[in-house]
Amino acid sequence: QVQLQQWGAGLLKPSETLSLDCAVYDGSFSGHSWTWIRQTPGKGLECIGEINPSGSPNYNPSLKSRLTISLDTSKNQFSLRLSSVTAADTGVYYCARGGGRLPTGTSWYYLYYVNIWAIGTTVTVSS
Amino acid sequence: EIVMTQSPATLSVSPGERATLSCRASQSVSSNLAWYQQKPGQAPRLLIFGASTRATGIPARFSGSGSATEFTLTISSLQSEDFALYYCQQYDVWPRTFGRGTKVEIK
Questions:
Q1: I need a surface site. Which of A13, A40, A124, B59 has the fewest CB within 10 A?
Q2: How far is A112 from chain B (nearest CA, A)?
């Protein structure tokens, strides 16, 4: 049974950097995409960014200038860094796993629905 | 970005009755549409992907249909554990986007 375990600071001051990490246990790391999703009162569920082992990360355009998502395949971990946070970044942050991939001859077609979610980290930005 | 619109916002249903939830995309997403269930204090759970394929372990009373811009989630006979929030998500293009949800409550 695949499990995702995430950790990171839950209370930040404005202008600080949000740092979250997510470890993958008992599952294939290379065969899936990996996603960060947040849930806020203002915007509901929002895909922050995603990454798969085959290519570059995708960042939500509204966060792109502040966001870094990376993979560490040696540790089966992926991470989120969001700089210059404000109160609007307050919410629950989830790391999550995509649905797998299908061969397309010379490459892979990744399935980006989310089939495994971590329990989430509540992040509060307050002075 | 693709806007996902769910209706109704709240659905009041008696146990044992059928619930029909709608989701509309602002442009075609083919069949790249997923449905999730969320209960208070929990992460969402995948119910349906590919518009109509049930995820592992999801009861047969949950079914999905539709394509392009119009999608439906049907719960054929509501059980007590089905009263929750339901979200649709398109994963056809980046950024993947969710609807605002439909709350299924006990009538």
A1: A13
A2: 6
